[in-house]
Amino acid sequence: MASYEIYFDDRLGMNRPRLLVDYDSLSAEQQQEFELKCQEICSYIPERIKAFESRYMRYYEQLKEADDETFFLYNEEMNQISEIICDLNLLYLYIEGNFLNSTALA
After folding, report:
1. Quick check: 100 and 42 in contact, CB under 8 A?
2. Contact call for residues 48 and 13 (beta carbons, < 8 A)
3. Is the pLDDT reported for residue 103 higher than 50?
């Protein structure tokens, strides 16, 4: 049975790690392998955030010339993008705080 999986999150547009067992039940080798995967995933997060911020700013600029109906559509898109950026930041902090910093202190 696999102890973790890496799956593609369509909403975030990138891979995410998922532990299927308690982290402490992993062998030292499995922990190291999992942490390496987490580091790889974390390395992509800043680029994903930049891409979503760029998309957000395009909608923001279009708001200036939008009619009422389009204004609300753009606003909804911007809200969804903001949620994704927030989730990416949370994912980064979660991985860094739970898996990557724990070995730095050991």
Report:
1. yes
2. yes
3. no
